[in-house]
Specification:
The chain has eleven helices and twelve strands. The chain is an alpha/beta fold and 361 residues long. α1 packs across α2 and α3 runs parallel beside α5.
Length: 361
C-alpha cells in the first residue's frame, strides 16, 4: 500500500473515519474479512483439538501480544516485564520473530545476555532495541519460536522466556498469556482484516490471562473492554531526548521555542508527532515512513533534505528508528535526537500477582 492509501485504510479500519468513502470501502472488504475470520477460527480449532501440535519449552513462557495490527507498545511492555523478572535474580530470554531483519526466518542469537552479537539490520529493529535497552537480557530470533527457544537454552540457559508478539503463535505453549489492547480503540472498527484491524475474531480474547490497556490517557477507560479478565492500564510517555551520537539526555524544556522536524517508521507516526507537540515542541515538518522501515540511502537523503530545507535545529525520531541510522553522515547525525519512552503501569497488582504466582512455581 502506498502511504496515502495506507493512511486512508487505517482510518477506516480503526473506526476513526465515518465518512461515506470509508463506509463504502468497508462494505467492499467485509466479504474478505468473513473468509479471513473463518480461516482463523479453523486454525485455532485445529490447535485446540490437537490436530495441529503444540510444543512446550522446558522453562516458563510468558507471551506478550495483541489482537490488532499496528502499534500497541509491545516493546516497552516486554522490556518492563524483563526488568521485573530480572530484578528477582532470574535470567530472561526474549523470543522474537526478527521482523524486518536480514536474518528473518533464521534462528540466531541477537544477545546472549553478555554482549550484543547482531546488528539492527540483521536482527530487526525491535529485537535489537530490546537487547540494547535492557542490559543482561538475552534475545533470540526465529520464525519457529520453539526452535529459537531450544537455541536459547543451549547458549543462554534462561530461567524464563518472553514470547514477543506471541498471541497468534499457537505452536508454542505458554504459561501466561498477556494481551495488549490500545486504550482508545481496542478493537478498531470491530472487523477482522482487511475491513478492520483485527488479526483474528474478537472472541480470541478468551485466550488471554491478563489484559494490558496501553497508551491510556489519565482517567481513561475505567472499565476493561474484556469483561471478566484481570487487567491493568499502562501509559507510554515521552521522557527525554538522547543525542544519536551519544552524550547526556536533554529535557524537552531545552528545545521549547525552537523549530524541530520529526520523522519515524512506526505503526502510528502521527501519534509520535502529536506526543512531541504535547511536550511543547514546535514541529515545523515531519516525515512518516512505513513501519519497520529500512533506512536506504534514498531515505537518509530525505532526512538530510528535510533538515536542510526546514532550517530546523534538530530532527527528532524514536529509539526504534535510531538503531538503524548508523549510516547517516556525521554532520546530520549530530542533529538527530531520539525521543525515549517511559512506561508507567497505573494499577500493576494484577500483573505482579500473576507473575509472582508463575515464578513461585
Amino acid at each position: 500500500m502506498n502511504g496515502s492509501f495506507s493512511s486512508y485504510w487505517r482510518e477506516m479500519a480503526s473506526g476513526s473515519s465515518a465518512g461515506a468513502g470509508s463506509r463504502l470501502l468497508r462494505v467492499f472488504l467485509i466479504p474478505l474479512s468473513l473468509v479471513y475470520a473463518l480461516v482463523q477460527r479453523m486454525r485455532t480449532g485445529l490447535y485446540r483439538t490437537g490436530i495441529l501440535k503444540t510444543r512446550r519449552l522446558s522453562r516458563p513462557v510468558i507471551s506478550i501480544g495483541n489482537i490488532a495490527v499496528g502499534g500497541t507498545g509491545k516493546t516497552p511492555i516486554t522490556a518492563h516485564l524483563a526488568r521485573l523478572i530480572m530484578a528477582q535474580g532470574l535470567k530472561v530470554a526474549v523470543l522474537s520473530r526478527g521482523y524486518g531483519g536480514t536474518l528473518e526466518g533464521q534462528n540466531a542469537i541477537v544477545s546472549d545476555g553478555q554482549r550484543i552479537i547482531l546488528s539492527a539490520a540483521q536482527s530487526g529493529d525491535e529485537p535489537f532495541l530490546l537487547a540494547k535497552s535492557v542490559p543482561g537480557l538475552a534475545v533470540v530470533i526465529g520464525s519457529d519460536r520453539y526452535a529459537a527457544g531450544q537455541l536459547a537454552m543451549k547458549v543462554c540457559a534462561p530461567d524464563v522466556f518472553l514470547l514477543d508478539d506471541g498471541f497468534q503463535h499457537l505452536r508454542l505453549q505458554r504459561d501466561l498469556n498477556i494481551l495488549l489492547l490500545d486504550c482508545t480503540r481496542p478493537f478498531g472498527n470491530g472487523w477482522p482484516l482487511p475491513a478492520g484491524l483485527l488479526r483474528e475474531p474478537k472472541r480470541a480474547v478468551d485466550r488471554a490471562d491478563l489484559v494490558v490497556l496501553t497508551r491510556c490517557p489519565e482517567g481513561a477507560l475505567a472499565v476493561s473492554p474484556v469483561p471478566g479478565k484481570p487487567y491493568c492500564r499502562a501509559r507510554h510517555d515521552l521522557a527525554d531526548l538522547l543525542p544519536l551520537t551519544g552524550g547526556e539526555p536533554l529535557q524537552f524544556e531545552t528545545l521549547r521555542g525552537r523549530g524541530v522536524v520529526a520523522f519515524s517508521g512506526i505503526a502510528e507516526p502521527q501519534a509520535f508527532v502529536d506526543g512531541l507537540r504535547r511536550q511543547g515542541l514546535q514541529v515545523i515538518a515531519s516525515l512518516c515512513f512505513p513501519d519497520h522501515v529500512a533506512y536506504s540511502d534514498a531515505r537518509l537523503s530525505e532526512i538530510e533534505d528535510l533538515l536542510r530545507t526546514s532550517a530546523a535545529d534538530f530532527a527528532i525520531t524514536t529509539e526504534k528508528d535510531g538503531v538503524k541510522l548508523d549510516r547517516l553522515p556525521k554532520a546530520s547525525a549530530q542533529k538527530i535526537l531520539l525521543a525515549r519512552l517511559s512506561l508507567g503501569v497505573d494499577d500493576p497488582a494484577p500483573l505482579t500477582e500473576l507473575l509472582f504466582n508463575l515464578l513461585q512455581k
